[in-house]
Amino acid sequence: MNKSERAYDLIAFDWDGTLYDSTAAITLAIQRSVGDLGYPVPSRERASYVIGLGLQEALAYAAPDVPESRYIELGQRYRHHFSQAIGELTLFEGVLPLLHDLKAAGFKLAVATGKSRAGLNEVLSGLDVAGLFDDSRTADETAGKPNPQMLFELMASCAVSP
To answer: How many Å apart are CA 69 and CA 153, to the nearest integer?
Structure first.
């Protein structure tokens, strides 16, 4: 399929739970970080429900008993626990060949994620896939999902019209 025959030139992916199999690690990191601060540990369902949100929004939902004044500390504990699991995490089966095929077909590829920039850069470089993506946006750089701002910024940076 050539460029004039396709409906889209840019494909923007979410990261966690879409390309990257990180659900268990995120859930456990949330639970452990809340427990570290001595608050009631959220259930697996509650902790996993927030995947894809920015860290602040995720913590507010998953750990409603933790006061906002402790979010910085809670975020630090979360990053500590999550970083311990990074070496064990992988892309979902079939994702890497799909990304290579899309890139070879001329699509621009991007990531729009609720992760932080530091967190996304760490996993992209750890998996050696950063070069497959033309651009990315994270929740600490722009408005998080469900706000479409990330997508608008990616379209602009990749010179693609809506």
So the answer is: 31
The share of the chain scoring above pLDDT 70, in percent, equals 97
Q: What angle do CA 149, 154, 158 make, to 5 degrees?
A: 150
Measure CA of the first residue to CA of the last residue in the chain; give whole Å: 20
What's the chain's Rg over C-alpha atoms? 17
Contact by Cβ (8 Å): 108, 159: no
Closest CA to 32 of 82, 86, 103, 91: 82
Q: How many domains does the chain have?
A: 2
Instruction: Identify the CATH number of the domain in which residue 115 sits.
Output: 3.40.50.1000
Q: Distance of alpha carbon 48 from its chain centroid, rounded?
A: 13
Distances (CA, A) of 137 to 13, 72, 95: 10, 21, 19
Domain hosting residue 94, numbered range = 3-20+90-157
86 pLDDT tier (thresholds 50, 70, 90):
confident
pLDDT tens sequence across 132-162: 999 999 999 999 888 999 999 999 999 998 8
